[in-house]
Amino acid sequence: MKNLLTICLLFCCSLAMGQVQFKSGKNGFTNFLAENTIYPQFSKDNCVQGTVNVSFKLNNQGKVYFSKVSKGILSDLDQEALRLVRLSSGKWQVPAGYDTTVSIVAPVNFVLSGYNCEGKTSRDIQDAIRSYQAEEGLTNSVINFYKNIDQAKPGQEVQIIGIKNQLGIDDEYLDDRIKMGLKKIKQGDKQGACEDFNFVKYMGSKKADDYLTKYCK
User: Fold this and answer.
1) What is the DSSP code string of 24-90?
2) Distance (Å, rounded) from C-alpha 192 to C-alpha 138?
3) pLDDT recorded at residue 76
4) Record keywords: Transmembrane included (predicted)?
5) Which of 95, 14, 9, 104 has its CA nearest to residue 60?
6) How do strand 50-58 and strand 92-93 relate by DSSP bridges?
7) Structural domains of the chain, with CATH
8) Backbone angles phi, psi at 86, to 5 degrees
């Protein structure tokens, strides 16, 4: 039997929340989070859980015009929480005379249940987090290389390919990243999808080029 993944996303906020509401009702935003969350693969595999605080502002049309992570856990969870808040843009009702400079703070709580996390110790999880952060630096070096490939030195790409192999970034990995982007397109998250497609591009692959042309111009 496959393990079941339960994602609990709790939403609380600052005093400003009393002045605005989600268009679909009292529990609308909580339901929206549960329906649209794509739990990042690394954090899911390594039982990384916790709360990401996202600060955001709404304009008079209920659209998110500013957002940032004010307290994070790990960049993959941070970016998912930020993506969800941005995806909620236009789904808010604001009253007449609403102060659009006020920040709303949304704590998004990521919890895994029934995913064998009981067998993971806190040390296991911290070791995984440190490994992830180290790999982020290597991933960024690959991205920077392909972004500036015109300035590459002879033979440098061989080293970059070695780093990609070390990170396990192969065709299967890139295909999964494209699938994630297409899922975001279905959710209406064009920005998030284009970030995934561009990631594939800056791994030196042309696999996502057609999607970049179709969705990201």
Assistant:
1) T-TTHHHHHHHHH----HHHHHTT--EEEEEEEEE-TTS-EEEEEEEE-SSHHHHHHHHHHHHHTTT
2) 22
3) 95
4) yes
5) 95
6) unpaired
7) 6-117 (3.30.1150), 121-210 (no CATH)
8) -65, -35
Contact 73, 54 (CB under 8 A): no
* Averaged pLDDT in 10-residue chunks for the chain of 217 residues: 40 52 87 92 93 94 93 95 94 92 91 88 94 93 96 95 96 95 90 94 98 95
Please choose, from the candidates 108, 110, 106, the residue with its C-alpha nearest in 3D space to the C-alpha of residue 56. 106
- At 88, the amino acid letter reads S
Joined tokens for residue 75: 């960049």
Closest to 91 (Cα-Cα) out of 141, 138, 56, 54: 56
Helix (H) / strand (E) element for 112: namely: strand 112-113
pTM of the entire structure? 0.76
127's tokens = 């070791």
